[in-house]
Write a structure and sequence with these properties.
mainly alpha, 66% helix
């Protein structure tokens, strides 16, 4: 909004020339989202406490200490993230860019699904929420619409292709199956972040790290000069997604202020589903879906641990892990929550560095 208002004035007032630069607007979006989170956080938490009463229902089959330490903590803190992210993005992005609208569509659509899920959990006082098949169907519908939209925007030889890191000449043409692939990327990322969100601060920091990496990727592939120099596949218009990712970083940092142990509020499905979907949509738009699997490797491992646990238990009646997802396994082994969280953060940073290295190794 501010870009579209101030950009025409740049020819008359040199001060407004800064809005032309994505780097400036990305920094401004990050700071705006952070300030909005700080200002609204206490009010949102008080409101959530007043309407939820007993807070988020705690799994009875989970780690025993959760029933004591986390009882009464309100959920749906993702509302704060989505509000700060949306306001900041709309303020600083070029509103004529359809990539941003496609990513916002996924973010807010998955956020609405998460709100519905959290609402049912809180009102019915159980951990079931929206039935799994319904949740997957809604995710698939939103993801498919967005994937078709992004495919239409990315016209050209790579519009329906999957590119691979390191191998600059390799591109797998999927034809009209590409929207289905894009849908699966968004669904997978959304559910992976959701499964990881089980300890204070555990999911939001890796999500911030992923957003930082993809802010850089979006900026580079959206700039023809940088893309050619690094031998990346250019995506015209994708640079504006750097502003969105920067806003996500600011909103995530603002939420972390209140979610740091001991958490004053939990993210809830409204936050985790939306953030995962957003990262998946950005990855599809920038043609870096495989890199998302590397940078978001922590989310992948958490998801795989659940798949292995369920598969093996159905086959043999025994468990591979003491409890899934993986972070609960370490809790059962006696690791302190801050130890698990910080070590998982470190792993996420290492994976981010590996993902960034693929931008140069060709």
């Amino acid at each position: 909004m501010l870009y579209n208002l101030l950009r025409p004035l740049a020819d008359h007032f040199i001060l407004f020339n800064v809005v032309r630069y994505i780097t400036f607007r990305a920094g401004a979006a990050c700071l705006t989202a952070l300030i909005v989170s700080f200002l609204l956080g206490p009010m949102v938490i008080r409101w959530l406490k007043s309407v939820q009463g007993q807070g988020q229902p705690i799994r009875e089959d989970g780690p025993e200490r959760h029933l004591i330490e986390k009882k009464g903590t309100p959920t749906m803190g993702g509302l704060l993230i989505l509000f700060a992210l949306t306001i900041s993005t709309l303020l600083w992005v070029d509103l004529r860019n359809y990539y941003v609208w496609a990513v916002l569509f996924v973010t807010l659509g998955y956020g609405a699904l998460g709100f519905w899920d959290d609402y049912l959990k809180v009102t019915k006082r159980n951990t079931k929420g929206v039935p799994g098949k319904v949740k997957l169907a809604v995710q698939a519908g939103i993801g498919l619409i967005a994937a078709v939209w992004i495919t239409e925007l990315a016209r050209g030889p790579l519009g329906m292709a999957v590119t691979f890191p390191v191998f600059k000449e390799v591109a797998l043409q999927l034809g009209w199956f590409f929207p289905v692939f894009g849908m699966l990327v968004m669904m997978g990322a959304s559910n992976a972040v959701n499964l990881t969100d089980g300890l204070d601060g555990l999911a939001i920091v890796p999500a911030i790290i992923c957003a930082g990496v993809f802010a850089l990727i979006a900026y580079l592939v959206g700039n023809r000069i940088f893309a050619d120099y690094l031998q990346l596949n250019p995506v015209a218009g994708a640079g504006e997604l750097a502003v969105f990712c920067a806003a996500l970083i600011g909103a995530g940092l603002g939420f972390l202020w209140f979610n740091a142990p001991p958490a004053a509020v939990f993210m809830g499905d409204i936050g985790s589903l939306a953030i995962g979907g957003a990262l998946g949509a950005v990855a599809v738009a920038t043609k870096h879906e495989i890199v998302l699997m590397i940078v978001g490797g922590l989310f992948v491992v958490e998801t795989v641990s659940v798949i292995i646990q369920v598969f093996w238990y159905k086959r043999t009646g025994t468990r591979v892990f003491l409890m899934a997802p993986l972070h609960h396994h370490f809790e059962k082994k006696g690791w302190a929550e801050p130890t698990i969280v910080i070590r998982f953060w470190i792993i996420s940073m290492i994976l981010a560095l590996i993902g960034l290295a693929t931008l140069k190794i060709r």
